[in-house]
Amino acid sequence: MKNIIIITFAALSIILSSGCKKKKTTETVDPCANTVCLNGGTCNDGSCACPLGFSGADCGTQKTPTVIVTSIKVTNFPGLDGTSTWDAITATNPDLLAVFKKVSTGATILTTGVSTDATVGTPYILSGVTPTVISDFTTLYTLELWDKDTGISAPDDLMGSVTFYIYTSTNKFPSTLTVTSGSVTFEVSLTYTF
What we know:
9% helix; five-stranded antiparallel sheet; Laminin; 36% strand; mainly beta; 2 domains
């Protein structure tokens, strides 16, 4: 009987000790395996690191910036004023000038310099644009293109205009905003601060 108890005890010890052994695992769990980061965000230890301008657990929220207009380019404009040249008296091409306004108040935000004797089909970066901060995004803005006239060709002629929002909560911060209406197209260069 003593031998049966010893054998039973030994067998139970072997069974219990082998059943309680923990398996060693070499598999590591990737904390980013189930993490989705939007808008160029990157996962770091299971959390998203968001790029400039975005926030939220998944970088899905676009922050509201301050927009800075840095330049204005005219890429398309009408070649004729009806059936004649813009400066019919002098028979020359238009002298381009842009005026950037807030629609609700009519207030001028900026006026560019003049590109003289502009040829249709040639893009013109208009001079005289100092970086201009825009922080009101709830209103419409307009860009007017004028033929700047002096002397016997005066007064100035409105060649066309474009009305637009400078920023939307889904536009993802373009460096160039292209706005067009009819035969007038502008490219507005922008930078952002947060």
